[in-house]
């Protein structure tokens, strides 16, 4: 019964979302057509979708998108690994925890784009620079989430795990990792959004190297060639990818991990 | 396994929250939908309003109350007459009824966007970005030339003697795709290597100061296509050489920077562009007749010494002139390479004085 209820609620939520999106699309099309604003400033949705489809089917857009997704996946992976290391180090030693807290507090408020000049000095203007910016934008919020996750695991669960005579490694795999996963997924959602921002900001500053570039480069090219429809198409694509990942990937991840384990609903 | 047992206890405790949570979620969805509706209505209304406002604003400018002239320029020695004009107040003397404001924007795309948004009346830029804007439907034309300048591709690598020597690992920095530097490089590539876009894969977008910095690091960037004063600064380093000049790339002379005016402004207020042209002539005269005074004024603008500025001003190929050269060649090349859709005639893109 509970399952059916959840299923219906989920369907209803999806239906609402689709309605809202359709409504927004209608508003866009109507306002662009009725306001009489130059299409160079605000093109109607139909024209934007047309550009998006031609660029997706015949143009360079799939390559750009793939490039962006690969860089983001790498950046997220590195960020998660780094954050796990920092989180567990903080868990093992309270002195290290204090240090890590301070480092996070110092680094977290720095926007990636502000670090860009230094990153260019150190790593040049290639893919490495973009990757560094993404890792920076992901690592600190994730570390915060993971540290918070570790701290919220109740003491009695540690006691229970000791009763089961789990060694430290087993404690990590059977207690801490499942316990912090809800926090980690929240952190990853934030990290995912941030890494997009970082990637696109970085690519719009120094563009593509070696003819390869992602969505940010696509948007930049559309800007310099004054293709406003293409600009909007790029933004739209980022939104679509964002929604798809949010509704499918992260929800799936939750379903197969923390809901199955019962650490969260 | 046991991990599941450990957490199921916790889940059972939290189970009570379920109903409240779901109910809360539903009402939250409804209220957020309402919020979205309200926001959108507001947005559409304000959009419609602002659209009308700019229209009526334009009408105002076209009508009696046209009172300010906003001019956008960029940074560099090629804009010297504008900088002199601004510092000496020539334009204020020529157009006493108008409030003159100067904008210095980072690149041509920004000038184009400012004009499109109705925040700039007159812009100064390279011919190719102007043509791209014209082709995309901007109501603007060229009303004057400003300068011819030596542009060049500078490298520090001793094994690169010409554009045919660039390998896949090399990187060439230039302002942006579609900039005059990019188009000139493509022209040279087409003529010498047979394909215009052959080097496009090794280009890196950087504004002039960043590009110069990267070139002087002598690491990642092999070459930089730039303009004065960056060109001179780079060439003053002993190991830097110019392997391609703008003139070689073009196969002739060409105007580097042109002045572009909005069509509405040009036809309703021909006195404004005419005033700019008179002020430009005075500034050119000042640059010609009092080069040392001019150099000391410009030195402050660029943050380089007056001696160096004077030396750069006398550089071969730097000429301030209102003549227009090379427009047809740019149009022809950009049309054949599909940067623009039509091979425009000269009189379509340049105002003909009445």
Task: Describe the protein in words.
The complex is a heterodimer of chains A (265) and B (354). Chain A has 10 helices and no strands. Chain A has helices at 2-34, 45-57, 61-92, 94-107, 112-123, 127-152, 155-163, 168-206, 215-224, 228-261. Chain A is an all-alpha fold. Chain B contains 16 helices and 11 strands. In chain B, helix 7 links the parallel strand 6 (172-174) and strand 7 (203-205). The radius of gyration of chain B is 27 Å and the shape is globular. The model of chain B is unreliable at 1-23 and 47-64 (pLDDT under 50). Classes of the chains: A mainly alpha (265), B alpha/beta (354). Chains A and B meet through helix 1, helix 7, helix 8 and helix 9 of A and helix 1, helix 2, helix 5, helix 6 and strand 7 of B.
Brief rundown of the structure:
With 265 residues, chain A is mainly alpha-helical. Chain A contains ten helices and no strands.
Topology:
The complex is a heterodimer of chains A (265) and B (354).
Chain A (H helix, E strand, L loop, with lengths): L1 H33 L10 H13 L3 H32 L1 H14 L4 H12 L3 H26 L2 H9 L4 H39 L8 H10 L3 H34 L4
Helix pairs in contact in A: 2-10, 3-4, 3-6, 3-8, 3-9, 4-6, 5-6, 6-8, 8-9, 8-10, 9-10
Chain B lengths: L1 H13 L2 H46 L5 E6 L6 H9 L1 H5 L4 E6 L3 H9 L5 E5 H9 L4 E9 L3 E4 L16 E3 L5 H14 L9 E3 L2 H9 L6 E4 L3 H6 L5 E5 H5 L6 E6 H6 L2 H19 L1 H12 L3 H8 L5 E2 L6 H10 L9 H4 L5
Parallel strand pairs in B: 1-2, 1-3, 6-7, 6-8
Antiparallel strand pairs in B: 3-10, 4-10, 4-11, 5-8, 5-9
Helix pairs in contact in B: 3-12, 3-13, 12-13, 13-14
């Amino acid at each position: 019964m509970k399952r059916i209820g959840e299923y219906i609620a989920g369907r209803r939520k999806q239906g609402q979302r689709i309605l809202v999106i359709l409504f927004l699309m209608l508003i866009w099309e109507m306002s662009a057509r009725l306001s009489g604003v130059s299409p160079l400033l605000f093109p109607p949705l139909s024209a934007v979708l047309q550009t998006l489809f031609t660029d997706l089917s015949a143009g360079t857009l799939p390559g750009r998108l793939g490039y962006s997704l690969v860089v983001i996946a790498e950046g997220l992976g590195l960020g998660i690994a780094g954050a796990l290391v920092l989180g567990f180090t903080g868990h093992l030693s309270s002195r290290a925890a204090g240090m890590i807290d301070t480092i996070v507090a110092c680094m977290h408020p720095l926007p990636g784009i502000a670090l860009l000049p230094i990153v260019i000095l150190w790593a040049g203007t290639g893919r490495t620079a973009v990757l560094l910016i993404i890792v920076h934008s992901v690592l600190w919020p994730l570390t915060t989430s993971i540290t918070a996750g570790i701290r919220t695991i109740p003491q009695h669960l540690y006691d229970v795990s000791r009763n089961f005579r789990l060694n430290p490694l087993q404690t990590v795999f059977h207690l801490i990792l499942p316990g912090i996963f809800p926090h980690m997924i929240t952190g990853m959602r934030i990290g995912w959004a941030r890494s997009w921002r970082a990637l696109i900001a970085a690519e719009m500053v120094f563009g593509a190297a070696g003819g390869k570039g992602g969505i940010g480069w696509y948007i930049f090219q559309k800007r310099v060639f004054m293709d406003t429809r293409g600009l909007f198409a790029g933004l739209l694509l980022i939104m679509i990818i964002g929604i798809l990942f949010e509704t499918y990937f992260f929800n799936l991840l939750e379903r197969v991990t923390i809901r199955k384990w019962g650490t969260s609903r | 396994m046991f991990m599941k047992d450990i957490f199921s206890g916790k889940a059972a405790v939290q189970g009570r929250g379920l109903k409240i949570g779901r109910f809360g979620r539903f009402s939250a969805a409804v209220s957020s939908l309402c919020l979205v509706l309200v926001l959108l209505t507001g947005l559409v209304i304000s959009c419609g309003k602002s659209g009308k406002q700019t229209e009526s604003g334009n009408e105002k400018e076209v009508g009696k109350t046209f009172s300010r002239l906003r001019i956008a320029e960029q940074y560099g020695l090629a804009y010297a007459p504008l900088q002199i004009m601004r510092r000496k107040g020539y334009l204020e003397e020529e157009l006493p009824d108008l409030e003159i404001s100067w904008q210095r924007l980072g690149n041509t795309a920004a000038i184009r966007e400012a004009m499109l948004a109705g925040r700039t009346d007159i812009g100064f830029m390279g011919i190719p970005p102007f043509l791209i804007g014209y082709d995309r439907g901007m109501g603007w034309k060229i009303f004057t030339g400003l300068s011819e300048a030596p542009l060049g591709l500078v490298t520090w690598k001793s094994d690169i003697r010409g554009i045919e020597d660039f390998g896949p690992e090399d990187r060439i920095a230039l302002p942006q795709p579609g900039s005059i530097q990019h188009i000139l490089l493509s022209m040279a590539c087409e003529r010498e290597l047979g394909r215009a876009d052959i080097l496009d894969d090794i280009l890196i977008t950087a504004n002039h100061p960043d590009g110069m910095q990267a070139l002087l690091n002598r690491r990642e960037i092999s070459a930089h296509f730039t303009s004065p004063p960056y060109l001179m600064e780079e060439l003053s380093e002993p190991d830097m050489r110019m392997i391609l000049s703008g003139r070689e790339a073009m196969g002739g002379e060409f105007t580097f920077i042109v002045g572009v005016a909005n069509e509405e402004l040009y036809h309703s207020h021909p006195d404004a562009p005419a005033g700019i042209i008179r002020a430009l002539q005075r500034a050119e005269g000042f640059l010609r007749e009092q080069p040392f005074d001019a150099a000391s004024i410009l030195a402050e603008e660029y943050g380089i010494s007056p001696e160096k500025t004077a030396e750069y001003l006398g550089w071969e190929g730097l000429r301030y002139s209102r003549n227009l050269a090379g427009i047809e060649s740019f149009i022809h090349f950009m049309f054949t390479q599909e940067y623009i859709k039509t091979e425009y005639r000269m009189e379509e893109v340049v105002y003909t004085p009445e």
